[in-house]
Amino acid sequence: MMIPAILSALVVAAPADIVCPIMGSKVPATAKSFDDYAGVRYTYCCGGCSEDFKKNPTEAIAKVIAKKQVSGKALFDPISRQRIEEKNAKASSDYKGVRYFFTTTAEKAKFDKKPADYATIPAKESMTCPVSHEVIGGYANAIAYRNIDGVRYYICCAGCVPEFDKDPKRYTAKIQDTVKAPGFANPVAHDH
Length: 192
Fold this sequence. Notes:
This protein is of the alpha/beta class. The chain has 2 domains: 14-119, no CATH class; 124-178, no CATH class. Helices cover 27% and strands 18% of the residues. It is built from 7 helices and 8 strands; from the N terminus they run αββααβββααβββαα. The protein has a 5-stranded mixed β-sheet with strand order 1-2-3-5-4. Strands 6-8-7 form a 3-stranded mixed β-sheet. The protein is globular and about 45 Å long. Mean pLDDT is 91; it is low at 1-12.
């Protein structure tokens, strides 16, 4: 019978639950406690886990990866490097403890071929827009990012992206004093 074979081909595995990076328990969809770290949002099962995560995020993330769980949601499509909301994503992939969202299924396919090429977080970043020199504040406030010479530069608005892409070195040279190690940067009040 071909019908069961066709039906089984249509069944798609549900994505793994998002778990608290500290407790390892499923995070409810209504959870409000979170921190954005290195461009990824980590949501907690309860308010107390935030402080533990902030003490040593690298260790907490390593434990999640070792258990093959998913605890973070990327705030940017790693192919287009544009900010993306989960509700607007056309596809997603889980890689090393993080769920990545994509604006197209073609981007997901490209990511899935070589996820390490796109999911790597540079050792340094700048949260100051290289074009406008505006302090962006939180990762979720940025519209996009670009990686140049081992530094991730977050860009404040859609108008700055094409300007930056014309001559990245010109813009990055002016904000070298803002480059630092990735860290925590939750959304803040922002004009854009």
